[in-house]
Fold these 2 entries.
Entry 1:
Amino acid sequence: MRFLRSLVPLKEGLPLLLIFGGGGAISLWIGFWRLGVLLFGLFAFFLLFFRNPKRIPPEGSGLVLSPADGKVIRIEEEVFPFFGEGKLISIFMSVFDVHVNRSPMDCVVKRTEHKGGRFLPAYKEEAPLQNERNFIFLESQEGMPFVLVQVAGILARRILCRVKPGQSLKRGEILGAILFGSRVDLYMPKEVRLLVGLGERVKAGESVIGVLEGGDEENK
């Protein structure tokens, strides 16, 4: 039952599901069995891809949650051009991962900015600089700046952003998605202590990837 609930799709995937599901049913009904099986196979693939499982964010102050499902492929601490001194964590989402992006903390959206670009494989180091990407500038309840960057990949040709400037977000709330394999970069203040390492797998809205100084994890 829990698995079936996890297959509830994003609304953006409903048109494709209706096309392939309806086409498969009609094909089987009129006797085109091979076409029907093919269309139902595509229906199953897109149902899995657009799945939007329920996530329950952990309790605690100062926690920074993963904004995406996938594998941590980069961790840096330096001065970034548009952010200043801080920390960066990059999460690569394969085509098999959940592609819903979630807010890493209770925050306010300050602004968003979309930039066109190429469609290099999202795991490449130059992808965040050359690929199509969407910047979401956030401010935490503590007044700390965060920047979440949705980066398109070689298959990802559509970035979904559901938030607008001035909008308040709860920890773990959906803020967008990237279709067909992609990457999310999260820029954080230097005051965040990271709790994950390279190669670890994380889940959006559930995995704690860091904590602000003075937060609950710091006090344990």
Note: Residues 33-49 form the longest helix (17 residues).
Entry 2:
Amino acid sequence: MTSDSPLKTGTIGGNPGTTVLIVEDDFANKYLCEALLRDAGFRVTSVSNCTEAKRILRRFRFSVVLLDLGLPDGDGMELLPELRPSQAALIMTVRGEPEQRARGLRSGAVDYIVKPFHPDELIWRVERARVYPDPRRLGTADHILWRGFALHPEHREFHAPGGGVIRLTAGETEILGRLLRRNTVVAREVLADAVSSGYGSGRSVSVLVSRLRRKLRATTGFEHIEILAIQGSGYHIQWTGSQ
């Protein structure tokens, strides 16, 4: 185990006081992550397996846990229940399949980074993870999960399993939220009432849906989400990618 003493408060770089635990058995990758994060001002501790990680997680508090999945003594996913609600888990793995990403996010991770990655991406994702809304701390009114995607109405953001983010207007957020919650055909009248109730948008439902479609198609990670118009009924959201 290598450590910058997670009990002490850091004052270097742009991330003072932010502690990171790296759980990674590949020496080269662990060393690279340690160096990059230390240079960015984080205080870093690293371990190589689930057993060491569980031991140190019970003793110390970390802001972010950078977690590999394929560890010598188990699946890193089993460490997620060990984390406190104040700790953000960022999964780091070569397993980039959508099913794996969705599984990790459903289990409580706040983000997912696939190896190999660019150094700047690692730093950016760790910085974002420490302020990301933790799904374990949010009630059902605060976020909506759908096929690994997460809509955060309070922040007006729609997050993809791979880390992409679409920023929405108030009206777009309300429309998308209704479609995701129902996961079936939602009547146009229901959507119109939702938009006109408290969101102050004069836009018609069709205009808001058109804007949502453009954002989904133009943003990496969201291309396989479609909002279908059902003649005489309303709208339905569906996934068109592989299952």
Note: The domain at 2-129 is CATH 3.40.50.2300 (Rossmann fold).
